[in-house]
């Protein structure tokens, strides 16, 4: 299998959002409550999958290197990780979302208050760092 990025599917449909669409997505998220804004910011700045964002835990946020470490779910096997550089503003948002005991120094609780509840759906769990 090739590692090149495919911009279009077999039917010629674009697979990714344009820059204008990404900006509109982030702008629309500013009108949502904090958990949705945070989730949308992670998606916008990292390009990760929704399931990867929902699985994010504090110990996978590297404040010193300004990266978020995602387990790559697309590879269909456990233990494959990738580091994605992110802006400081996103790190600040994520850092504010957890209590001191859940910070990136080793926390294993999910960052957001969202979980996947079915195909294409996320539901709110409540609280800041929901149990994983």
Explain the overall architecture:
It contains 4 helices and 5 strands, in the order αααβββαββ. It is α+β, with helices and mostly antiparallel strands and 132 residues long. The protein has one domain (19-124). The strands form 2 sheets. The chain has a 3-stranded antiparallel sheet, with no helix packed on it. It has a two-stranded antiparallel ribbon with strand order 4-5.
Task: Name the descriptors.
two-stranded antiparallel ribbon, 5 strands, disordered C terminus
Largest sheet composition = 3 strands, antiparallel
Can you give the helix content as a percent range?
25-40%
Residue-averaged pLDDT: 77
Model regions low in confidence, pLDDT < 50 over at least 5 residues:
115-132
Distance between the termini: 33 Å
Strand proportion, as a percent range, falls in: 15-25%
Short structural description:
With 132 residues, the protein is of the alpha+beta class. Helices cover 29% and strands 16% of the residues.
Give the SSE layout:
Layout: H1 19-29, H2 34-46, H3 50-54, E1 61-62, E2 67-71, E3 81-85, H4 88-96, E4 114-118, E5 121-124
Helix pairs in contact: 1-2
């Amino acid at each position: 299998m090739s590692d090149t990025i495919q911009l279009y599917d077999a039917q010629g449909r674009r697979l990714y959002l344009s820059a204008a669409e990404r900006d509109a997505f982030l702008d629309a998220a500013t009108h949502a409550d904090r958990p949705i804004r945070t989730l949308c910011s992670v998606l916008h700045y990292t390009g990760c999958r929704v399931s990867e964002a929902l699985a994010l835990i504090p110990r996978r946020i590297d404040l010193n290197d300004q990266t978020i470490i995602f387990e790559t779910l697309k590879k269909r096997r456990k233990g494959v990780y990738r580091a994605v550089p992110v802006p400081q503003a996103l790190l600040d948002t994520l850092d504010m979302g957890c209590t001191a005991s859940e910070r990136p120094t080793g926390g294993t609780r999910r960052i957001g208050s969202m979980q996947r509840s079915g195909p294409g759906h996320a539901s709110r769990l409540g609280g800041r760092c929901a149990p994983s």
